Amino acid sequence: MPLASPSATPSGAPRFGANYTPGQGWFHHWLDFDLDAVRADLDAVAALGLDHVRVFPIWPYFQPNRTLIRPRAVEQLVQLADAAAERGLDVNVDGLQGHLSSFDFLPAWTQTWHRRNLFTDPDVVAGQAAYLRTLAAALADRPNFIGMTIGNEINQFSAGPHPDPDRITEEQAETWLRTVLAACEEGAPGKLHLHAEYDAAWYQPDQPFTPGQAARLGAVTAVHSWVFNGTAQRHGRTGTATRAHAAYLIELSKAWALDPHRPVWLQEVGAPAPLIPAEHAAAFTEETIEAALDCQDVWGVTWWCSHDVSRALADFPELEYSLGLLTNDGRVKPAGAAVARIAKEWRGRTYAPAPRTTAVVVDDAMERRVECAPGGAVFEAFARLTQDGVRPAAVLASRVADAEHLAARGITEVVTPEEVR
């Protein structure tokens, strides 16, 4: 049976799930939807002992015209959610992908002859809101529906290195986020609705989507941890910074949160080859999750991804073919076995990590975000302290003198990156 309260962690423990990548046809399976194939995939996910999946109704497949949200596609999404419920799996629904595994997924009514800004054009935003509201409403009465994620790292469309970005300001990004989050709430009141950016929001100075937005808007903070961002290249497979990258992002997000105990969802994390070779994927998986769960207030860990991409599909970057916990025909891989062991070990276990008493100071200025990126002063100070066994947190420079905030987080010592060096 599905969990009674999808928004809560089971028995006080963090939740464990997978980003559902269908074994047959990848996300193009929506074009030839086969419920029996979906059921087989979900059987394999449930057999790992996971409790939820994040699913991806591909935006242009579901809303090919601004005023056409295909009823049959919405029905199929509900069928998928019901199939998950039958297997004890809760469901988070990703609305506006934008981008997945090197491919952009935008409807034709936003492109070329109909080119309009994704974040500021009134008609586009109204269409997005209608779509998100429709999906949320279709699932609102399902007990296993966790809530909506606005999109998959859609912030990449707002700045470089995207080849054709829709430039916006920080204020416009926040207005857009508030609008689309409100649409989800209108469709499914009281569910766990959130937004998710890739790490440029934390690291890239000219990103209009900001750490403050990530850590303050929506029901939880989502972080996506990928060590191919320069971390593994700089520190190697076994480097402390590589193994603790997810934990670092969790703690960095907590520096920006207004609520000292705001939940953080490690919503995407994976073991990318060749930086993490296949023979080391299980060890990396275990080390990454162990480090993440040494942070407080973790809502859950959702691994990328459930199934490998089939080699029958062309033009994916090489690493995308091997990220699954399962092969595309459902066989458990070493990383999948590792996640299954961890999920079993945590079932019924008390989740109460000790406070992190030493915090690295993070500059509030958006143009200083590069200091938080791999190679930056904050990033390297955090890694050095972790290597020395310190269990660091992070705190904004503007809050160093806020005794109430520090006490709420259990911080008793504050150090600058320069002091760590």
Helix count from the secondary structure assignment: 15
Order of helices and strands: EHEHHEEEHEHHHEHHHEHEHEHEHEH
What structural class is derived from the secondary structure elements?
Answer: alpha/beta
Give the % helix.
25-40%
CATH topology of the largest domain: TIM Barrel
Which stretches are poorly predicted, pLDDT < 50 over at least 5 residues?
A: 1-5
CATH fourth-tier homologous superfamily of the largest domain: Glycosidases
Largest sheet: 7 strands, parallel
The chain-level mean pLDDT equals 96
Proportion of beta-strand residues: 5-15%
Task: Summarize the SSE layout with pairings.
Elements (H helix, E strand, L loop, with lengths): L14 E5 L15 H13 L4 E4 L3 H4 L8 H16 L3 E7 L1 E3 L2 E3 L16 H18 L5 E7 L18 H18 L12 H4 L7 H6 L4 E5 L5 H5 L4 H4 L1 H12 L7 E6 L11 H12 L5 E6 L30 H13 L11 E5 L14 H11 L5 E4 L6 H7 L3 E3 L1 H4 L1
Parallel strand pairs: 1-2, 1-9, 2-3, 3-6, 7-8, 8-9, 10-11, 10-12
Antiparallel strand pairs: 4-5
Helix pairs in contact: 1-3, 3-4, 4-5, 10-11, 11-12
Structure description:
This protein is α/β, with parallel strands linked by helices. The protein folds into two domains: 10-346, Glycosidases (TIM Barrel, Alpha-Beta Barrel); 358-420, no CATH class. The chain is built from 15 helices and twelve strands. The protein has helices at residues 35-47, 59-62, 71-86, 122-139, 170-187, 200-203, 211-216, 231-235, 240-243, 245-256, 281-292, 334-346, 377-387, 403-409, 417-420; strands spanning 15-19, 52-55, 90-96, 98-100, 103-105, 145-151, 221-225, 264-269, 298-303, 358-362, 393-396, 413-415. The strands form three sheets. Strands 6-3-2-1-9-8-7 form a seven-stranded parallel beta sheet. Helix 3 packs parallel to helix 4 and helix 4 (122-139) packs parallel to helix 5. It is globular. It starts with 14 loop residues before the first strand and ends with a helix. Mean pLDDT is 96; it is low at 1-5.
